[in-house]
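Quick one, T. Sequence first:
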Amino acid sequence: MSYYEALLFLHILATIIWIGAGVSLQFLTFRGRQTHDGQFLQSVGAMSDWLAQRLFIPSSLTVFVLGVLLTIEGPWSFDSLWIDIGLAGFAFSFLTGLLFLKPEGDRIGRAIAAHGPTSAEASFHIGRIDAVQRLELVILILVVAAMSIKPTADDEVTLVIGALILAVAVALAIRSLSRLPNREHLPQQT
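C-alpha cells:
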C-alpha cells in the first residue's frame, strides 16, 4: 500500500463516519418527531451534542486534512473544480456547525430545561435545526458525488443536475423553515 493509498483509504473512512453519523441522526430525529416523543428527541439532542465533539468535528477535520494531503501528494491541483466543490462543501458544513448548529442546539437545551421537551419553544428550535441539518447533509452528499465523479467545467449535465438537486434541497429547507410558527407567536410557557 502506498502512502497515497493509505491517505485515500483514511479519507474515505472518515467521510463514511462523518456522513453516516449525520444520516443516522436524521433518522433518529425523524423518528422522534414522527412519534412526538419529546424525551426521545431530548436524548437525540444530547447525543448530537456529545457526538459533535467526539465524532463530527474530528471526522470532518480528518476529511479536510487528508483531502489537502491527497491533493498535494496526488496528481491533483487546488484549481480543479471538483476540489473547489469539496472545499466549499467543507466550509459550508464547518461554518453551519459553528455559527448555527451549535448555538441552535444550545437554544434547544435551554428551551427543554425551561419548558420541557414537548414545548412549542423546543419544537420550534428542533424544527430549525432539523431543516438546516437536512440541507447540510444533501450538500455533503453532493460533495461525495463531486469527489467520485470529478467533474470539470465541461461536464455541464453533471453540474446542472447537482445544481438542481441543491436548488431543490434549499427550497425544501426554506419551506420547512417557513412552516415553523413565528417565534414571537409561540405560546408563552409558564
